[in-house]
Amino acid sequence: MNDLSFGKGPPAAETSQYLTFTLGGEMFAIGILSIKEIIEYHDLTVVPMMPPSIRGVINLRGAVVPVIDLQARFGRAAAPVTKRTCIVIVEIDEGEGSPQVAGVVVDAVSEVLDIAAADIEPPPLFGAGVRSDFIAGVGKVRGRFVILLAVGRILALEALPDGAVLADAVALPGGAHQAASLLSRDPLTTVA
User: Fold this and answer.
1) Contact of 135 with 148, CB cutoff 8 Å
2) Mean residue pLDDT across the chain
3) Residue 20, Cα to own-chain centre: how many angstroms?
4) In whole angstroms, what is the distance from residue 123 CA to residue 12 CA?
5) What is the spatial distance between Cα 170 and Cα 116, in angstroms, rounded to a whole number?
6) What pLDDT shows up at residue 188?
7) CB-based contacts of 131: which residues, under 8 Å, 6+ apart?
8) SS3 of 45, please?
9) What's the CA angle centered on 96, arms 93 and 98, to 5 degrees?
10) 61: number of CA atoms within 13 Å, CB side?
């Protein structure tokens, strides 16, 4: 007689899903719940007087969405655009009205991985070539490390260099209003 007991035994390890991608030859990941979609890289509208990490804006089904160059955001030189370069559209709900939507440029999207909580270490105190406040943790996957990004912190536009121009744009609801604020700003009246 088989002794089958359903629902008993050790609980399954808590896992989360992450979208992995390469950037400058390194593997990074963003929690899948923040990902809205992945689109092919195409021409961007450049917005004058923006920090180097803001590549421009795109029209995403009628909404104006800012596009952030993660390489520049990390203080590195911008990567050249290739056939595999794409824009990952992320959405962050900070509980203060409408969610913030932005695109991030990545070299190539890899795969969606399940990473168990037990396989995630806290952010390192040094190394990784990325500011530690941008790192949510380091996942161990198949003998490699994957840097898990704190996407909300990376998209905090007010923390960008020359962010005084952008500080109040983040609080505006909707992508179109946010980009309109970026475009209509008079740089002569802004205190940097």
Assistant:
1) yes
2) 76
3) 11
4) 25
5) 33
6) 34
7) 74, 75
8) strand
9) 60
10) 5
Q: Name the nearest CA neighbour of 69 among 47, 36, 96.
A: 47
Supply φ then ψ for residue 129, to 5 degrees.
65, 10
Q: Which amino acid is at 157?
A: L
Q: Distance (Å, rounded) from C-alpha 90 to C-alpha 75?
A: 21
pLDDT of 33-83, one tens digit each?
Answer: 999 999 999 889 999 998 888 999 999 999 999 999 988 888 888 878 999
Let me know the angle formed at the C-alpha of 154 by 150 and 159, rounded to the nearest 5 degrees. 130
Contact partners, residue 23, CB within 8 Å, separation at least 6: 70, 71, 74, 79, 106, 107
DSSP three-state, residue 188: coil
Residues belonging to the chain: 192
Task: Report strand pairing: 15-23 vs 54-60.
Answer: unpaired
Structure tokens at 134: 């941008």
Q: Which amino acid appears at position 182 of this protein? A: L
Structure tokens, 108: 């190539």
Strand partners, 109: 21
Structure tokens at 133: 């406040």
Here the tokens at position 101 are 């939507």
Tokens representing residue 82 in the block: 């290739």
Residue 124 tokens, joined? 């390192």
Rounded distance between C-alpha atoms, residue 180 and residue 169, angstroms: 9
Place of tokens 């917005």: 47
Give the tokens for residue 74: 């990390």
